[in-house]
Design brief:
Layout lengths: L1 H7 L1 H27 L3 H25 L7 H18 L1 H10 L7 H28 L4 H20 L19 H20 L1 H11 L1 H6 L4 H27 L9 H14 L4 H17 L7 H15 L12 H4 L11 H5 L1
Helix pairs in contact: 2-8, 3-8, 3-11, 3-12, 3-13, 4-5, 4-6, 4-7, 4-11, 6-11, 8-9, 8-11, 9-11, 12-13
Length: 347
């Protein structure tokens, strides 16, 4: 059994090792790619990557654990403000500290934004812990209402704080989000979700999804695992919010309201609850679809809604259900049954 567990994590190790040279190549060619993709299509591409991070992270709660959270945008808002606090207010102090440490000037901007992303993840994780401890003792519709209320409460708190712009939001946020950061975020959240699904912790989450009472009866600490999934999802939502804030060059609380949470839930349900592949494809499709329907501007949202309804009628379990796409399946061929040997047949 130990050998199987080790082999099971070899693909994840290969993924992580392959990300390093890819990141180096993208860092070297990042400016060229952004110059070639600058403008409208580049922005939609960035929004697609951010949507993937948000959808895959929510899938850890709604898909893996079987809970129903509709307050994900609130954690994105926490991450947006936490990261903006570093890049807007604390950047001069951080720059002095890096200068004192003799860090090269060319490395300081990406390093500073990396610190901001870590702050976004930690801030959103703490918010997820605060929200999860009381609300995850609830189930079903009650949990959905509780997470919705907490998400709106987070937004209302920031709206009343004048130090971060109040209702008008925070402006003059630097444009630090680029192709490399979004790419690394997408790869990292997918690897994290797949590793979690293949681990013993993932098996516990799936057991809670199938039957929470039965899982509790066999010794699974259901409350602890639900809080763990909630914190992980909130941390990645904070990263998505930070990337969005530094792409829009500002934080507007209205962009992180109830409709944003519903949009992310639709991505998860459309892709298939529990499927990381489905969440990725649905996030990309639902980001590009409204843009592709712009030629029919007057009927764009009507057609968008009709397409979603038809897809859910034809695929009620989502695009992928609970299945995952695997590169190995493309290269796996069925072996034809070998004809019986004469000697064996005669015997």
């Amino acid at each position: 059994m130990k050998v199987r567990d080790k082999r099971r994590h070899i693909p994840a190790l290969v993924w992580l090792l392959s990300v390093i040279p890819i990141a180096l190549v993208l860092s070297a060619t990042g400016r060229y790619l952004e110059g070639a993709l600058q403008g409208y299509f580049f922005r939609v591409l960035m929004l697609s990557g951010i949507a993937i991070i948000a959808a895959v992270s929510l899938n850890v709660v709604n898909g893996f654990t079987g809970q129903f959270s509709i307050g994900h945008a609130g954690f994105m808002l926490v991450g947006a403000y936490a990261s903006a606090g570093i890049t807007v207010f604390a950047r001069p102090h951080l720059q002095l500290a890096l200068d004192a440490a003799h860090v090269p000037a060319s490395v300081q901007p990406p390093l500073g934004f990396g610190v901001a992303l870590v702050a976004a993840a930690l801030g959103a994780a703490v918010a997820g812990l605060v929200v999860g401890l009381p609300s995850l003792r609830l189930r079903g519709d009650y949990l959905a209402i509780a997470t919705l209320g907490f998400g709106e409460a987070i937004r209302a708190i920031f709206v009343t704080i004048d130090a971060v712009g109040g209702a008008s939001g925070l402006h003059n946020v630097p444009l630090d989000t680029n192709f490399v950061w979004v790419f690394l975020g997408v790869i990292s959240v997918i690897v994290t979700a797949r590793n979690l699904a293949l681990s013993t912790h993932g098996r516990a989450l799936f057991a809670i999804r199938e039957d929470e009472l039965a899982a509790q009866a066999v010794g699974v600490d259901t409350f602890r695992y639900k809080v763990l999934a909630f914190v992980i999802a909130a941390a990645w939502a904070g990263v998505a919010g930070a990337l969005l804030a530094h792409l829009n060059q500002g934080v507007d609380p209205k962009d992180y309201g109830f409709m944003k949470s519903v949009e992310i839930v639709v991505m998860v349900v459309l892709g298939g609850l529990g499927s990381v592949t489905g969440a990725v494809i649905a996030a990309v499709a639902l980001t590009w679809l409204p843009e592709l329907l712009r030629p029919v501007q007057d009927y764009r949202m009507v057609l968008y809604s009709v397409l979603l309804i038809l897809l859910m009628l034809l695929r009620p379990r989502g695009l992928f259900g609970r299945k995952e796409f695997s590169l190995g399946s493309l290269f796996t061929f069925r072996k034809e049954a070998a004809p019986p040997r004469p000697g064996k047949e005669a015997g």
